[in-house]
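Data deposition worksheet. Section B asks for the primary sequence of the deposited chain exactly as it was used as input, without tags or linkers unless they were present during the calculation. Section C holds the resulting structure in token form. Section D is free text for depositor observations; keep each observation to a single sentence. Incomplete worksheets are returned to the depositor.
Section A, Depositor: J.P.
Section B:
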Amino acid sequence: MTKEQVIEALSGLAGGTLRTASACDGFVSATLVCAPDDATRQRVRAEADAAIRKRAHELGADLRQVSIETTSETPSRPHAAAQSPAGNPAPRAGLPGVRHVIAVGAGKGGVGKSTVSVNLAVGLARGGHSVGLLDGDIYGPSVPTLMGLDALEVLMHRNMLQPFYVHGVKTMTIGKLVDSEKPLIWRGPMAHGAFKQLADQTEWGELDYLIIDLPPGTGDVPLTMAQLFSLTGAVVVCTPQKVAQDDAVRAARMFQTLNIPVLGVVENMSYFIGDDGKEYDLFGKGGAEKMAARMGLPFLGAIPIQTELRVNSDAGTPTKNFEGSSALSSALTKFTQRVEQEAAIAAMRNRQGPTLSIS
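Section C:
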């Protein structure tokens, strides 16, 4: 279904006024304004869900997930102040309702960290999880392109940014709050404030996973993140060649210094499969896996270079990377599952159980 078809399906709904709607790759989300009592909200949600499913059936459209929310207040649009770190709300202790916070980082740029972040978030969502994606790369946000956000508008509700719901993922990025061609020149305190506002002033709701795409390097944003959140862990992105490994080691050491468990290392751009079906090791072979073994870290998998990954990334259609039985789809699925496993292990290690003292 398209956004216009969702709006059409909900146009005759009694007792509720449509506030926002989005539709992408079978994932549909809508928020309606209605009376505040629980009975009305429950009825409006049920009727909206039924109306969307009925319209989808008439169109022969495939629905993967329908998310309906209700509110008793009308939204306001964000103003210029939302682009500045000034005027932040009072800090919260962590993010209530978010089970796992996972950072994706790299010691250097150009290794495909944002692409890995986006596909990890989409892969988790396809696995039935409730997922958020925070584009923390405030210097060069690429999530608007990777997630196809260009045509969507930012809304605020009760002084909270409303995340975009695309490809089954709740997404927020500073790339939608500033001019797309404006250079983002941030000093340390400004970078701290911008990231804090994005993280703390977005209405994430209940999430199984929040994936944070960090800027490259070991600067202000990771430090701010470590102060704001109790992280489940971090994923380090590396490519096979030694120059990338050297910087990835620094990224892993940074997370360890900040007491953030490193869930493991993923090797991106690991190999290229030609039209002849052969694998070509453009940047060497197995470097990230050897680095992970040397540091005693889990190896999360190898993601190949394939033309469809570039095409789908430029088009903002990441769900297509998981379709079919290609080497790319298989690699991304295995990587996502491995991150799930390591996150569960890290959460168990972080959980403090009762102790028994015998005297």
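Section D:
The chain is about 35% helix and 20% strand.
The first strand starts at residue 16 and ends at 24.
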